[in-house]
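Can anyone check this?
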Amino acid sequence: MPEIESGGLSVIGPVREDNQDSIRLSDDEHPVGHGLLFAIADGMGGYAHGGMASTLALESFSSILASQNGSSITRTLQRGVEDANIRVYQKARQLDVGRMGTTLTAAYVIGDMLYLVHVGDSRAYLIRDGRAICLTEDHTTVGDMVRSKLISSDKIRTHAQRSVLTKSVGLDLFVQPDIIQQKLREGDRLILCSDGVWSVIEDEEFAQVASGASSVDEISQNLINLALHHHTDDNASVVVFHLRKLIPVSMEQDSRNPKITSWFQNLWKLVA
């Protein structure tokens, strides 16, 4: 296992009546499967039971990783999202509360490799050499507009449709996550955050906060304080981890496009 210092913080914020965000940390003594898992989920406030959706999604996703049975890492991450998606979808039907949904951004560290799985508009930032690099793409209407070059990226935070999701966990029977692999270096810091944080903090400010703090707990607290200072109107949550020592491992031969047949087999087992 690599040596990783981790911390996180989640607050209601000044506007919301409840906190619909959920976070997940693991450490050297509590691995998940063959690696360390860090995750964040932001329940959708416009739908019923957003907090339940985010908690259930993280529990379901973590359970799949913990029971990894020889499948490739990327395939296991895909299965984790599929399971989380179906369980949130089914829970909404069981409770008869309409639609429930959540974002899900999870970082799984094995040796010196980061496997990042992402659905929605929470974000993952890599802090390296004094710079903040956003590793995720927003699955939102505005994110699509930026990728289509209809607007510039500096308009995202102030656009009226910034929070309109085009992809989430639990709203539909099918969801396809982004799965990203990133080689890590000792000294790297990773920040996962909900949109209640990044919407009011510029990318360069993430780097400044991370570089100016002595611990991950201090980074977490300073980011939350900064989001509150900038008058965030949403729940604010961060997960931070610092890679103090890495153990290189050989690259796994993964398939990036799991067969759709397997998806339907898993779906049938869950709903039968």
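Reply from J.R.: I decoded it. The chain is about 30% helix and 25% strand.
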